[in-house]
């Protein structure tokens, strides 16, 4: 069975689509997958089982990236084409079955919209794939011992970034004597590039003993590292979704983006919202003591199903 799966250009949306792929892998053990995905997010799928081909999509003017993708997949016969981008390409291919996601903003979580494309209910929970090499590197970076508190102080939009001083206060509140992660090591994660480094720098400077992983990991390595952490707290970002997909307790920080649509989804995941209009609140309205209280409750609580939905 041959399946073409066209997914997002963004890491967070790509991670949210992994649950549907995991469902298809389980439902069709003989299937082989071609994944078309934005280049920045291709690492999400690099270690997935049953992967036959990974096609990175780079946006071009006048939609020419779709023509480039069509030229790479048009001469095959597909048993199933899943298009989460809502393009016309699925209708221009030889396919026994097509599932095309409707475009535009809609109420409800993005995960539900993805699952509805294939008529799945409940929505399959996202997963994170990494291999033995990534697991070995993660073990070298975070050897067994004290628990690790992972912080994600970066995002793709400056308004989504929680002030650095709040991250520093939170780290102290969660690791001081008597705290739920007393004596924990702190790891700081972020993506590559000058913008990510600039966002993370104040937190790195304020926590000089922290494990500096900003720009140091590809996505499968980041997944392996996050899987070894006791807790991840970070801005609404691809790393937040990746952490939740690993099963690590994950607390996402939300202000100007709607948690009702993009909250983290995992076995132990939750969102904390800044005070103000939902989806339009300033991150500065989110206090460190409140976040620490939510993190403590998350660590103390049992695993939940579809926590963000």
UniProtKB/TrEMBL annotation:
This protein's UniProt keywords: Glycosyltransferase, Transferase
Recorded superkingdom: Bacteria
UniProt name for this protein: Glycosyltransferase family 9 protein
Pfam family, one: Glyco_transf_9
Gene3D superfamilies: Glycogen Phosphorylase B (3.40.50.2000)
